[in-house]
Amino acid sequence: MSDVGYIAAAWSATAAVLAAYVVRVAVRTRHARRSLPDDDPRR
Amino acid sequence: MTAAKPPDNGHRRGVASLPTNPRLLPRRVSVVLGWSTLAALALLTLFGLWGAPPDAVQGDAQRIMYLHVPAAWLAYLAFTVTSVASLLYLWPRTRSTVWDLLAGASAELGVVFTGLTLLLGSLWGRPVWGIWWAWDARLTTTAVLFFLYLGYLSLRRIPASVETRAKRCAIAALIAFVDVPVVHLSVNWWRTLHQQATVFNPELNPRIHGVMAFTLWLGVVAFTLVYVYLLDRRYQLAVLEEDLEERELDAAIAQRVAEAPSPRPAGVHS
Amino acid sequence: MTTTTSRKPRRLRYGIAAAVCVAAVGALLVGGLSRNLVYFRTVSEAVKARDSTGSHRFRIAGAVKPGTVEQSSKGVRFVLTDGKAEAEIDHTGDPPQLFKDGAPVVCEGHWGRGLVFLSDRIMIKHGADYTPPKVNLTHSPGQTS
Q: In terms of DSSP bridges, do strands C58-64 and C86-92 run parallel, antiparallel, or are they unpaired?
């Protein structure tokens, strides 16, 4: 693999890890919020 | 009229111990921060891949530094925040579930950044050193850091009362933090394949040229924005899930009380 | 009821996860760190301990002495120096892409006959200075320790 290959891998890996984390937190937040009763102040 | 009151569960405070506001930042600030973070990451990519010149010795492969070094510094910062929050929890005058949940949220981000550091370091090491991994002191202590806080995150998920869990996790977090300065100073203490610090070296004399130094700082700013944005998001999730868990527990206890004629639901909650 | 019934498996699962992490830390400290605190020996140290080392594996570090690199049937042969002592490296395999005259390297292998070190892995130990190719600050590229 050339230098370009390693650089591309590094940038894509960073983007993939951060994006996957953001999505995971967002999905879990939505699920938790929907499971809480309507009158919960934290909703 | 005791029927309206929740059943007596000893010292259990349940949902009442949770913060009412699940956000660290107001919603508008969080949204603006999210877009600023994306813009900073785009700018970093622009400078990291095209704006900065290739290194005299390493050539283009050195560009991975603009991600690897900020990821490592943010892991340090995340674990520092975890430690400070844990101390604030342990100190009786500032004890609050807020600090416990913040410590957990920051530690999870620290583990993400440590994992990224290891991954990016490997992708940098292969073209430059010639190998993916070396069992030298810097790399080994970084792997140790990863597993220490992964263990801390597992400890957080072991069911216990809010107070018990918070206290035991705060102590574990402070023990794990010992490794952070060890990682940073490992390159000075021991002979390693990993190079020594470029910026925070013992002489405090950054050894990096103009545009490259600027790009590195841009990386640090961008990753700091990522961290603050995600900390706010992850903290909110922690509050919501804690709320949910306490409500389910309250419901389960109430059901037990209703089913059994025993006046004290001992053993339901430890 | 779901929470109370799911608490015991959760305790077990995350208890095991925590224990595995602690075990991993222990394994890394004992297996990785304790053996490699001194990741390499300098050429002088290695030459001095030549007789007591026998044919044990270790890592030797120095700079490639300019003008000594020659192709061999198995890989490359060159002289490694730290300014005070020298050793001949007989390497099997392709050297990494940054390998060149004057490059700071770490070789893994064992002593052969006399002061010939039989290496099967070369690592480049670059410095912590970063400059564009044209700018030459006080340090010359590739010479940093």
A: unpaired
pLDDT band at C99 (very low <50, low <70, confident <90, very high): very high
Asked casually if ipTM beats, i.e. exceeds, 0.90, the reply is yes
Question: In 3-state terms, what secondary structure has residue B11?
Answer: coil
Which amino acid would we find at residue A5?
A: G
Phi-psi map region of C114: left, alpha, beta (phi>0 left; psi -120 to 50 alpha):
left
Pairing between strand C41-42 and C58-64?
Answer: parallel
Domain segments of chain A as ranges? 1-34
pLDDT of residue C133: 79
Tell me, yes or no, if A27 comes closer than 8 A to chain B by beta carbon.
Answer: no
**CATH class (in words) of the domain with range B27-247:** mainly alpha
**Cβ atoms B177, C41 nearer than 8 A:** no
A12 in contact with B, Cβ within 8 Å: no
How far apart, in whole angstroms, are the C-alpha atoms of residue B60 and residue C133? 11
Which of C33, C101, C105 should we substitute to test contact with B (largest number of B Cβ atoms within 10 Å)? Answer: C33
Contacts of C32 in chain B (CB under 8 A): 135, 140, 143
Q: Is the pLDDT of residue C4 over 70?
A: no
* Positions of chain A with pLDDT lower than 50, given as ranges: none
Domains of chain B: which residue ranges? 27-247
**Which range among B74-88, B123-137, B240-254, C10-24 shows the weakest confidence by mean pLDDT?**
B240-254
Nearest to A18 by CA among B47, B67, C91: B67
